[in-house]
Description:
The structure holds two protein chains of two kinds.
Chain A: E1 2-8, H1 15-26, E2 31-38, H2 41-49, E3 64-70, H3 73-81, H4 83-88, H5 103-109, E4 115-118, H6 122-134, E5 138-141, H7 148-160, E6 165-166, E7 172-175, E8 178-181, E9 188-195, H8 198-210, E10 215-220, H9 233-244, E11 250-255, H10 260-271, E12 277-281, E13 290-291, E14 294-296, H11 300-308, E15 326-331, H12 334-344, E16 351-353, E17 361-362, E18 372-376, H13 380-383, H14 394-405, E19 409-417, H15 426-440, E20 445-451, H16 460-470, E21 473-475, H17 478-488, E22 507-511, H18 514-522, E23 526-530, H19 540-549
Parallel strand pairs in A: 4-5, 4-22, 5-6, 9-10, 9-11, 11-12, 12-14, 15-18, 15-19, 16-17, 16-18, 19-20, 20-21, 22-23
Antiparallel strand pairs in A: 1-3, 2-3, 7-8, 13-14
Helix pairs in contact in A: 6-7, 8-11, 9-10, 12-17, 14-15, 15-16
Chain B: H1 4-17, E1 20-27, H2 28-31, E2 39-42, H3 54-66, H4 73-82, E3 86-89, E4 95-96, E5 108-114, E6 120-124, H5 140-161, E7 167-168, H6 169-177, H7 188-203, H8 209-221, H9 227-240, E8 250-256, E9 259-264, E10 272-275, E11 280-283, E12 296-297, H10 301-305, H11 326-337, E13 340-349, E14 355-361, H12 363-369, E15 375-380, E16 388-394, H13 399-412
Parallel strand pairs in B: 2-3, 4-6
Antiparallel strand pairs in B: 1-5, 1-7, 5-6, 8-9, 8-12, 9-10, 11-16, 13-14, 15-16
Amino acid sequence: MTTKHEIRRGAYADSVILMKVQKGLAGLPGVDDAAVVMATPANKDVLRSTGFDLTGIDVGADDLLIVVKAADEQTAAEAIAQVDGLMKQRPSGGAAGFRPKSLRRAADMLPDASWVIVSVPGRYAAAVADEALALGKHVMLYSDNVPLADEAKLKQKARASGLLVMGPDCGTAIINGVGLGFANRVQRGRIGVVGASGTGIQAITVAVHQLGGGISQAIGTGGRDLKEAVGGITMIDGIDLLAADAETDVIVIVSKPPSPHIAQAVLNAARTAGKPVVIYFMGQFAPGQRLGNLAFAQSLQEAAALAVAPQGRDGGAEKDGNNKGYLRGLFSGGTLAYECVMMCQAVLAPLYTNVPVGTAQPLADVHASQHHTIVDMGEDVFTQGRLHPMMDGSLRLRRLQKEAADPDTAVILLDVLLGDGAQADPAAELAPAIAAITQARPDIAIGIILIGTDSDPQNSDGQIDQLEQAGAAVFRSVDGAAAMAIGQLAAVTAAASSVAPLPQTFAAINVGVETFHDSLQAQGASVIQVDWRPPAGGNDKLAAILAKMKGR
Amino acid sequence: MIDIEQANQETVTRMMAARPILKTIATARDVIPGMRDDLLLHAGPPISWENASGPLRGALVGALIFEGKAADWEAAEALLTSGAVTFEPCHAHSTVGPMAGVTSASMKVYVVENVTHGNVAYSNLNEGYGKVLRYGAYSAEVIEKLRWMNGTFADILTAALAQTDGIDIRALLAESLHMGDEGHNRNKAGSILYTAKLAPLIAQTDFSDDEKAKTLQFLGDNALSVLNPVMAGCKAMCDAGAGIAGSTIMTTMARNGTEVGIRVSGLGDQWFTGPVGQPDGLYFPGYTAADANGDIGDSTITETAGIGAFAMAAAPAIVTFISGTPELAINTTMNMYEITETEHTAFTIPALGFRGTPTGVDIRKVVELGILPQINTGIAHKEPGVGQVGAGLVLPPANMFEDALIAYAEKYL
């Protein structure tokens, strides 16, 4: 047993506080007894009589004396180190009805608030949101007319801090069952929504409700989130958040047409969600109806229906493949190649081709594959001085062997076109080569898109048999083959988000439109209204100085 | 670029770590830096005779009569306007004084040492109520009282303090805030604590029982006895935070009856001034707002240090000055948290769950939020010599905070 003390000269504190600190110290493991007192003669007498040895301690009535009796020196020192923390454990009292003027003060008054709802005029909104992020709060930015560059900056800052910025111009969200902005009263459930459109979120959440489902969270991103300048940060982080959310079984994402590159990043985030994701990119080409765990809807209503009954989509969630290698597609039919590029460019990056569309980029050299490659070998450059590959497969056969020898190759897609005029028995030429590849490289998946009927001279059934026996998977359309290929390959994910799980209860600080405060209060949420005024009373010169001092 | 947050933290940390101890009482000319026989110190920012208000003029005249340099107003005014006697802000000499704050070379002053950082601050002795120099009274009875205070009364206190290591002003204030004081306009509890500490020491001195009794009576009757050592204590704390490069914390706020001035830690000794406001308050019977002088005194050093109006939630009874409710007292303090850097580690408010008082006015927040530091103040009559006519609340002008911000931008940004 050892006794350790600390003296704080002239540090007066009320005895009620000191007794609380003393109780806290005495309750620490390994601490036998503790005293935290103003060292008045009376207090010193009490200490002596209760077995504290004060010999050699020179301390006066204005001094705060801390004495700890503990099992060992370190325990005592650690206990004394706790004093400041215990002293600070005070409820932050205040008068009922006091309205804070600053976000900082509101945050002190409602420390549980994890959201700040901002609806001040657009020119001031980014600064308020920025301050909210600095305070560690998620932001719903209802304001519009926020410059795009500010939106990008805010979202990058949010991502770096593990926070979400919904908006600007985010009209609708439902967080922990509480509707923000314009939201409908829908039942709670296990479907999470991330939407770049407020009315889209309203339509889907209402349809889910009507179909008997319920909403876990509905996250609004604002209409410009999927622009290149912003990069879909909120949508991607929202998907990641819902992917990790134990209360969410299915995710729905809805947006007006995004830029192709951003759409690709979003779909890759969705592919790694580990749960079914229903996608409705209005007016955007969908790479099939289903792609692994992804289902593509063609309307708001269908998106809701797919979310409520994900089992209706032949099978449940599939995780994406984890093969980090590349797809190599060697096509003889130009339109089949083009359709395959269309589908694959939605998720595979970088994808090179001689028929570029969407995010796909032109090949530097059509004879050499790079990363993911889909090549139309019916193009003129391949047919100069030789027959079209539908009649002479030798050039493609050599390219097939070259791809099989590439250690980075993971999936090979080939098309086979039957019918009058085509090669007499294409399978007889391909099957031995495929068999040799499956033997030497069992890690490579080979898919064949076979276009032909059982009435064709080559007889499709016989051709399929030969190819399947050689180890290829045969599909009768491009979308099946593309889905197989993509399913094999690992999703390319951007910087992993680190948005922490949302707290169980919803509490917020409202800055701006007061009806939002009233609406949240009516829904039973904890909310505090900031009595906001433009900084420096709207004096631009002073406001500019203040902004500069804040490093903005 | 300068780290403002760090500079501000350093400023308030130093202000709160400062431990002002009332060490002794001494003659101004012997201790105050730069004090001279032909110099008078006054409250607030620098001012000319021409612009000085009635109470300040009266106090300057009274001090010259007390010093024996002039017999009457005309003679004193001649000395003051000719430059034969000059007058400078108390704040330029580590000193503070309530109301007119006039301090002359022969006057006794409290010597308060910040034992943490070693700086020292000074304040004259509180004269109590009635006709007093600090409100500009200079009649024979005022001078007579000054002679006793700067004579026997000061000698007894000096002898009493000599028996101790000093009185810890910060600890005394911390306790008085828990007893319903806010340390500026309400010092009832603090003055009793002060008297209680001095009483046994005074009893031990070699003066006559009559003199000792008169001294104790004067201390005990005056609910402002402790105000001057408290102000010097606050000055010692604020000076500890002055001169921190890059800091936007206000370390001086003072009024001379015509203008209010502030100084900012990161902006050196430069004053930023604006016209004084008219207090909103209650007037003693027979007086109205028409009688009121502009706000005056260095006592806003208390708000600067984190008490006074900033600690109003600790002193709900103070709202009787403006016929307010206790809720107003709470909300005043709550508002001040908006514009301050931190919560005081030594001064706490029971009604707010023992939260620290709002401490360290950040001029950035004042300008950004448009919330001005609240001041609790006594109201002086505009004619010299009439005295206090009321008490109330007042706000300083916004322009000096804006000017300081612009000066800061020019210096640092």
